[in-house]
Amino acid sequence: MCYLVSLQVQVRLTLVYSYLQSLRPGETWIAEVLLEKLPLILPGVTLFMSPNDQNSSSFAHLLGWIENPSTGGDTPFTHTLKEVVVSHNPPVVTVFNVKEYGRRHLRTLEYTSNMSLCLHEVSGEPYPDRIGGVLAMSGGVPMTTTSPEPSLIITRALNSEMGTQMLIPSRFMAGLIPACLVDKYVFWQSEDDNIIGYEIPKDKAKEDDDVGADTESSTRLKIKLSKHKGVDNSGFCNTGADAMVQRVAVSDSDEESENIDKNRPVLTLLNIVMAPAGSLLKQIGMLLSRLDNLSQVLVWSESEVLNVQQACTIDLIELPRVNLSFRAKRVEKIDGTIEHRLYSNDNDGLYIATSIKSRQLVEKLLGSIDHFIVLQNEDNDLFVLIPGCALPRRLVSVVRCYDVCVLYRMPLITSGSSSYLSSFASKSTDGSHLSVQVLLDRRNQEWINNMGEIRCYLYPVHSSKSFLITPSLASSMYLMVMYFITGAYQEVYKMVESCVSEDLTSEEAQIFNQLEFLGNDNHPDAHACRLKLSAVTVGLGDSSAMKCPWSVFEEMR
């Protein structure tokens, strides 16, 4: 399945929300997702939907509008057009503002109900919410408005062959393609409406560490639009279109020419978000979302793709923020059966384990920690891969009101950080044990920079299948902090002695410093863990980097 995304606004609409009985039997999932959530995110807004049959679709586009605040005087009332994209399995609601720009209607992403499964990390601090029974981190403000304003159109004509190109600001690409591509390329739209992304030179990129994989050679991103049938006579670009996104390698970065590097394949981007529920692509995408948000996950096909409906293979997977990539290989086993595996390009001989048994085994060892994948080798040895560039924090004291979760938060949750709810572990209700929710801050740049080039921890599973082997001090400390956050105090107590050192790197120091924000955990076992850590580090001296931030006297009271 190729990359499908409607880049323009549909104009034929029928009323849906006010007359839910008009939905076809196979479309009732749209109402199930929106019925409780819509009054909360877009109160008083009537949504309209295309009359086309949505029975077999994995998502639906709806439109509505809200009235802008009055500015007084003789200024006429204005409205903001909202586009709502509803997906199911899992249920996700994404809200765009439709904005006029240079006499064209373009989208700006304003809200998503699930930051982990959105193609862009919405600005602002995320917050936990529930939709369709799924608890996730939402981001953005759905009720934002936009007022009419002048547009600044930038065009260029590099040569007669390429014609005139118009610059597409990155804010209009957000939510349509993965954010790691939006950050890496500058987009220009040609006279035929197709879009070309030119790689940003590395020395001009705002965040070199966030630029996607393959930065040493130049590439182009080609977005070919396949317009839907029908003639648009409105003049406002209301024709819908699907897009095929391809990455082409070029021998140089000269934008006036295109010297294609024929030694490297043309890669076609596959759309995880819009993939049908239960499909192989969807399953792989949901697995990879444990390592990073889908805005930082790229799934490529090397198949020769001619149209967006064509079936194709999955050949290469890139996760640029965590510096990981996987390549598909066809393996013939001893018994003659053929198996397709995703081999890690960063860990020789290891590939993603797909057996339920291996997954269940690791889940028993990790408890409520769930941002991991299981790798294995030819000898069936198991390894646990956990992204270390996800800064872990704990959310506590859940109060549910009108089906919205309100949480009292630990300190130092940075405003503007992109995060998502990793796990929801409901503990005992005696008040001494916290109800735990793990918040993974995945775009804290200071934390990521301290990680260096290797941004994941690989834990071999011991041959006894009873514990994990921690190959480094940083990996030990990170696992210990995760156990502490999720309330696995027995595991913390056992690991304390292996997490001590006179000197700490910046990576190790930032992990150790997270223990300071677990000081409000008053479970007796939490006190015991802190006291043991104080006991094993007391000999390091007051000037040590591992000076515990709590009072031994207070812990023993």
At a glance:
The chain is α+β, with helices and mostly antiparallel strands and 557 residues long. Helices cover 16% and strands 29% of the residues. A hairpin with a 5-residue loop joins strand 21 and strand 22.
Description:
With 557 residues, the chain is an alpha+beta fold. The protein folds into 3 domains: 14-249, no CATH class; 267-384, no CATH class; 391-441 and 470-556, no CATH class. The protein is built from 11 helices and 27 strands. The strands form 4 sheets. An 11-stranded antiparallel beta sheet has the order 9-10-11-12-13-14-15-16-17-18-19, with no helix packed on it. Strands 1-2-3-4-5-6-8-7 form an 8-stranded antiparallel beta sheet. The longest helix has 14 residues, at 524-537.
Helix content: 10-25%
Structurally, the number of domains stands at: 3
What does the radius of gyration come to? 25 Å
CA-to-CA gap between the ends? Answer: 62 Å
**Please, what is the average pLDDT?**
82
Strand order of the largest sheet: 9-10-11-12-13-14-15-16-17-18-19
**Low-pLDDT ranges:** 1-19, 204-216, 397-435
Instruction: Return the structural class.
Output: alpha+beta
Give keywords.
557 residues, alpha+beta, eight-stranded antiparallel sheet, globular
Topology:
Layout: E1 14-15, H1 28-34, H2 38-41, E2 48-49, E3 59-67, E4 79-87, E5 92-100, E6 105-112, E7 127-131, E8 134-140, E9 155-156, E10 165-168, H3 179-182, E11 185-189, E12 195-199, E13 219-227, E14 241-249, E15 267-270, H4 280-288, E16 298-301, E17 316-319, E18 324-332, E19 338-344, E20 351-352, H5 356-366, E21 373-376, E22 382-387, E23 391-401, E24 404-409, E25 419-425, E26 436-441, H6 445-451, E27 456-460, H7 473-485, H8 489-495, H9 506-513, H10 524-537, H11 552-556
Antiparallel strand pairs: 1-2, 2-3, 3-4, 4-5, 5-6, 6-8, 7-8, 9-10, 10-11, 11-12, 12-13, 13-14, 14-15, 15-16, 16-17, 17-18, 18-19, 20-21, 21-22, 22-27, 23-24, 23-26, 25-26
